């Protein structure tokens, strides 16, 4: 019996990779915060790039970076360069890299430089050169203003902070958030965050700042998350932004909220972790050790009806 299972497994492992219906491999990595060396180490660990930072994901990998590449470290230019190059290489190989906006990207775009390190400014040559770089037509601003705030890949939602159901349009789902960002970001930048955000998408409860799913009480937050996922037709939400101090990926709400900001930057202790999703198998890769994140299929009562009443 055991032998038969072993044989079947062997057969399966030989047969599966040859079929063209392989599920895609989704890899997600969160906050990099100015640390090129450890970011590269994490991407290598997750088999996204090789030691020369070249794409090795082939045509079967979708890599998502959930924002906050900048601040708290010096390597802003090197990291944005690497991500743009990886995105091009992935595209050429038939794969995909999806960098998203985090709250620190938006902060730098509106001139909120509270977390910018002096060593970072030096890499630009001068303060003025860095200001120019983050303008809408600057070499970093041009790249950042094109990025989305959220993405959904095969029923997994990715964002920086968390998407409260109030930001989900019942007809267009996530597209509303991304379109809003592209319609309003320039006005928000030009007014240094004063105008252009009537709906609060860039604000403290918006998708790049929300911490409810990471920190709020589960009996309140899980029904909200369930509602958001129901509206989006998704199974789980993967988020950065809230640092997991032990350097490991954690999940809440029965595996529906997955928290992947493990503090990759030197500013947080240079931890190494990534998330890998293949089909419905969700695996945390913590410092090279793979642990499956399981769910029991629990469902929380959706709050959709009451939310509609409130509106
Ligand atoms: C999407 O996920 C489902 C399981 O949830 C899996 O069966 C399917 O192969 C996945 N599709 C791709 C393209 O990865
Ligand atoms: C993906 O790459 C593999 C290996 O290089 C190749 O055999 C396969 O045909 C490619 N699939 C597609 C859809 O391009
Ligand atoms: C941004 O998201 C929209 C859907 O919301 C998608 O159509 C578009 O291709 C995305 N753009 C990038 C650069 O990923």
TrEMBL record:
One of its GO terms (molecular function) is hydrolase activity. Gene3D superfamilies: 3.60.21.10. Pfam families: Metallophos (PF00149). InterPro entries: Calcineurin-like_PHP, Metallo-depent_PP-like. Coiled coil: none annotated. Residues 24-244 form the Calcineurin-like phosphoesterase domain. The keyword Acetylation does not apply. PANTHER family: SHEWANELLA-LIKE PROTEIN PHOSPHATASE 1. This is Calcineurin-like phosphoesterase domain-containing protein. It comes from Umbelopsis ramanniana AG.
């Amino acid at each position: 019996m055991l032998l038969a299972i072993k044989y079947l497994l062997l057969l399966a492992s030989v047969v599966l990779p040859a079929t063209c219906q392989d599920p895609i491999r989704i890899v997600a990595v969160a906050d990099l915060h100015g640390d090129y060396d450890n970011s590269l180490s994490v991407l290598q660990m997750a088999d996204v790039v090789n030691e020369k930072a070249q794409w090795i994901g082939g045509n079967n990998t979708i890599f998502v970076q959930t924002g906050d590449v900048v601040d708290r470290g010096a390597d802003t230019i090197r990291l944005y360069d690497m991500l743009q190059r990886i995105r091009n290489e992935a595209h050429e190989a038939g794969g995909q890299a999806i960098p998203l906006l985090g709250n620190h990207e938006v902060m730098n775009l509106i001139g909120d430089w509270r977390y910018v390190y002096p060593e970072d400014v030096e890499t630009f040559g001068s303060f003025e050169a860095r200001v120019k770089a983050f303008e809408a037509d600057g070499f970093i601003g041009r790249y950042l203003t094109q990025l989305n705030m959220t993405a959904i890949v095969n029923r997994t939602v990715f964002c920086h902070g968390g998407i409260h159901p109030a930001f989900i349009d019942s007809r267009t789902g996530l597209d509303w958030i991304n379109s809003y960002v592209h319609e309003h970001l320039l006005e928000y930048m030009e007014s240094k965050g004063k105008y252009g955000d009537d709906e609060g998408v860039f604000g403290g409860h918006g998708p790049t700042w929300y911490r409810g799913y990471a920190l709020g009480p589960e009996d309140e937050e899980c029904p909200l998350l369930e509602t958001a996922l129901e509206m989006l037709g998704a199974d789980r939400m993967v988020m950065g932004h809230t640092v997991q101090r032990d350097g490991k990926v954690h999940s809440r709400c029965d595996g529906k909220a997955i928290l992947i900001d493990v503090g990759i930057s030197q500013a947080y202790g240079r931890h190494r972790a990534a998330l890998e999703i293949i089909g419905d198998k969700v695996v945390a890769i913590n410092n090279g050790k793979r642990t499956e994140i399981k769910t029991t299929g629990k469902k929380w009562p959706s709050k959709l009806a009451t939310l509609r009443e409130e509106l």
